[in-house]
Structures are given as structure tokens and as C-alpha cells.
Design goal:
Layout: E1 7-11, E2 14-18, E3 36-41, H1 42-45, H2 52-62
Antiparallel strand pairs: 1-2, 1-3
Length: 68
């Protein structure tokens, strides 16, 4: 996935990066998305609120700043 502002999906009160909004069955981190609550874009939610594993995987493929 090479998207600077990817779609994020809220599942179990955690935002995850996904490929196709509500059609995605799995997050970038590999978590199965059973409970879908909302969707948005990364820039709207902010990387501080994204699943740490999703953010790290996204950061390595998009040259985003690393998570401390």
C-alpha cells in the first residue's frame, strides 16, 4: 500500500489502516476486522490514534516519521 493518506477503520475502539474502507476484512497489521464502527482518513484521525503496528508498517512503506 503506497498511500500517503490511507483509509482508517475504527474496530474495537482502535483505529486501523485498511485498503478499502468498509470492504476490508483485515487491517494492515493483520487483525481481522470483526466490529466496524467508523471509517475516516489518517490525516483526520492523526497517527497518535492509530494501531501502533499498522502505523509502523505504513511508516516503513511511505517514509512517514517513526513512532517513538
Amino acid at each position: 500500500m503506497n498511500e500517503p493518506n490511507p483509509v482508517v477503520l475504527l474496530s474495537d475502539n482502535v483505529w486501523h489502516i485498511v485498503e478499502h474502507s468498509r470492504r476490508s476484512e483485515y487491517a494492515l497489521c493483520g487483525k481481522r476486522l470483526a466490529q466496524r464502527q467508523a471509517h475516516s482518513r489518517l490525516n483526520t484521525v492523526g497517527h497518535d490514534h492509530i494501531c501502533r503496528k499498522c502505523w509502523q508498517l505504513h511508516a516503513t512503506t511511505n517514509e512517514a516519521p517513526p513512532v517513538d
